[in-house]
Amino acid sequence: MSLAGKKILITGGAGFIGSNLAEHFVKQNDVVVLDNLSTGHLQNIEHLIGLSNFQFIEGDIRDLATCLNHSKDVDLIYHQAALGSVPRSINDPITTNQVNIDGFLNMLNAAREQKVERFIYAASSSTYGDSKALPKVEENIGKPLSPYAVTKLVNELYADVFYKLYETKVIGLRYFNVFGLRQDPNGAYAAAIPKFINKFASGEAPTIHGDGLQSRDFTHVDNVILANELAGTTTNPDAFGEVFNVACGKAVVLTDLVSTLKEELAQFDSSVSKVGVVNGPERIGDIKHSLASIDKISRILGYQPVTHFNEGIKKTINWYWENR
User: Fold this and answer.
1) DSSP H or E run through 220
2) Which site from 51, 101, 109, 308 is most exposed, i.e. has the minimal number of CB atoms within 10 Å?
3) Residue 135: is the preceding peptide bond cis (ω within 30°)?
């Protein structure tokens, strides 16, 4: 299926991933962004505002009427809106549940009622929970380790039920530690890579929680854009009602991440090489290792990573340095 000329609604489109999707799809589509700006930023999409095929709506997915109204006459929904962060969910499980479950169900139901062609949603690697099996395979999950992980698992359960009961064409994409341009480096719940870049560039030592030997399948946002496009265009009937890992299929140890960041940043400021790190306590709800199998998404959607870790770090650091 071609996406040319399709009208696309992106919830959470002023956030990190959502704004990257908006920037990509606005090249050939009418794009509507729905965001309440609680964690997203208008500056992420300010370069799109004013385009004839782009519309920004400040609204909240916890309001069903808002979801129904703005899903009307839409061909595809890319649902990215959520309260991210495991620590945030531990500190505030109620709001996390309201946004991530109530809001998700509102949007999913709106897609059904408005007969939206396809509903593609951001799932999460946190769904693997306490499973120690590596690599992570879609059909083998454990018990959730945080309220955030619970909400993302419930999203998958609702999507599965809507596909089976109502034939809503749903596809879930389990993101693994996404990084790239426009990811917020500030705040208590900032992700590791932008926070570390920001700290090193300021000559401050970032904190690593634990011994630094934990590993993650860091995934540049270019790969997430590709996965979303493939999910939007696939004609493979085996894709619907399914969830797919979106990753590179390669684990990077945090100490190696730190070395890579310092090496790249030192090309802009040699003093960065002298900045150390601080080891803090392990965070509740964190897993030790994360590594994705990308066999399923490769087989069914034809996905292969387009930007690998080292190239992604270079692109990300260049962007942050230019936009400090």
Assistant:
1) strand 219-220
2) 51
3) yes
DSSP string spanning 281-295?
Answer: PPPTT--SB--B--H
Consecutive sets of 10 residues in the chain, 324 residues long: mean pLDDT of each? 94 98 98 98 97 98 98 98 93 98 99 98 96 96 96 99 98 97 83 92 90 94 99 98 98 95 92 89 85 99 98 96 87
Q: Looking at residue 134, what DSSP letter applies? A: S
CA gap 130, 110 in Å, rounded: 33
Sheet strands (E) in the chain: 7-11, 30-35, 54-58, 76-79, 118-124, 170-175, 178-179, 207-209, 215-216, 219-220, 242-246, 252-253, 278-280
pLDDT score recorded for residue 287: 81
Please give the C-alpha separations between residue 68 and each of 108, 112, 115, in angstroms, as whole numbers.
10, 10, 11
**Catalytic positions, written as ranges:** 148
Q: What is the pLDDT of residue 288?
A: 86
The span from the CA of 221 to the CA of 116, in Å, is 25
Task: Compute the distance between CA of residue 56 and CA of residue 214 in angstroms, rounded to an integer.
Answer: 39
Half-sphere exposure of 208 (CA within 13 A, CB side): 20
Q: What six digits make up the tokens of 9?
A: 């609604």
How crowded is residue 254: how many other Cβ atoms within 10 Å of its Cβ?
A: 20
**Structure tokens belonging to residue 86:** 């495991």
pLDDT score at 283 = 82
Distances in whole angstroms, Cα of residue 101 to Cα of each of 219, 276, 282: 25, 40, 28
**What would the two tokens of residue 79 be?**
């649902």
pTM over 0.90: yes
User: What distance in Å separates the CA atoms of residue 289 and residue 217, rounded to the nearest whole number?
Assistant: 9
Query: How is residue 150 written in tokens?
Result: 């619970």
Identify the burial level of 95 via C-beta atoms within 10 angstroms of its C-beta, where 0-12 means exposed, 13-18 middle and 19 or more buried: middle
Among residues of the chain, what percentage have pLDDT more than 90?
Answer: 86
